[in-house]
Amino acid sequence: MSYPVGDPNIRPTDSADSLGQNGYQITQQFMNDYGHTGVDLANGASGGEVRAIGPGMVSLRLNAASSFGFGNVLVIRHDLPDGTFYSLYTHLQDGSVLVDQGDEILFSGQPIASVGNTGHSTGPHLHFAVKFVNTLGCGYIKPGHCASGDIFANYVDGGPLQFVADHQTAPCPPRFTDFFNRPDGAVVNGWTNIPSGAGHNLLVDNEKLTTPAPQGDDRAGIYRPINLTFPVSAWATFTHMNGFGGLLNRYDAGFLFGNDGTIVGGYGVFLGRGDQNYADSSVALVLNGVTLESQASSFQYGALINLFATLEVDGSMSGSVYGPEDSFDFSFGPRSVNVPGNNLALIQGFPDERSSVITNPTVDELNVEHACNTGPFPE
């Protein structure tokens, strides 16, 4: 889980002198002398992003006219191993709510609204609470302020911020992109080489990743750490290489998730085509060097294609292959998979050396993102 405003991984402070590292200050504590049922979080302005603390489903959405002073309201149901809980977000800015009752919240940190000043409010803030029951309840539990019968037993012990802290998960990994637009030579930029059987590494040439020389059926690769606790997608642009006798449109390249720094370790998908004389374009699902399944493409791969692949946490893999004019979608169902490492590897085959003209394959415009990512890719 993550905190609903400010830095999602840093707990807001109650310091009167500073907003702290989170960016929001606690202006009212949970269960204070006034019987406050949540925490109020503010930074002096409206419009700040409000995010769901975790995945779940929107169980209640109310506008200011029907929320008994809470302004615009969202409640999200979270089914967790230790029980079912409801997170409450109130005083949301008019026109800012991004989800509706019944919508699924896909990940911790998903934007849902903006901080506002609607309802009975003395300034822009988020009233945030976590309950055991799917009710709006009261802002204060004390005589004369709560006609609904709400009680503190409806709320989690320790308050909502402690609840998030107790259920905090790893922060969402940042997006990553590599267009290989750097001087010719070693790949660098956080990548580690996986040499071919003959000891050759992939390299950057003319702002693309490529092979240094033909080597028949050999492969080389590069890898970098990746977080596999979230669904993750990778995509890139690939160009063909030559086969025997200079025949073109040959492909042997792909992604391995959970790679261990070896040429075969991991679980992923590979593009394959013998050469222009073969109508065998396909995507293969592989695990540690073994092909588990293969799906034939609806078109034959040409000089340039794009591969998009998504690995879900249940082991299913899906995506698409598309060229300038054609595309085909593939899907491999859920399965139990034990991967040997915690890296993403890009693996590339070498052109056939039995040719007077060598066409080296290239890889460009590589992107990696997790389901929890929002906003644009880095420049």
Name the average pLDDT: 92
The proportion of strand residues reads: 35-45%
The residue fraction in helices comes out at under 10%
Describe the largest sheet.
8 strands, antiparallel
Going by helix content, strand content and strand pairing, the class is mainly beta
Uncertain residue ranges: none
Element-by-element helix/strand order: EEEEEEEEEHEEEEEEEEEEEEEEE
* Quantity of strands, as a count: 24
Distance between the termini: 28 Å
Please compute the radius of gyration using only Cα atoms.
26 Å
- Shape by Cα distribution: elongated
Question: How many distinct helices?
Answer: 1
Report on the structure:
This protein has 379 residues and is mainly β. It is built from 1 helix and 24 strands. The protein has one helix spanning 160-166; strands at residues 25-28, 39-42, 49-51, 56-62, 72-80, 83-92, 104-105, 111-114, 126-131, 176-178, 192-194, 203-205, 208-210, 219-225, 232-239, 251-259, 267-273, 282-287, 290-296, 304-311, 317-322, 327-332, 343-349, 362-370. The strands form 4 sheets. Strands 10, 12, 13, 15, 20, 21, 22 and 24 form an 8-stranded antiparallel sheet that branches. Strands 1-2-9-6-5-4-7 form a 7-stranded antiparallel sheet. It is elongated. The two termini are 28 Å apart.
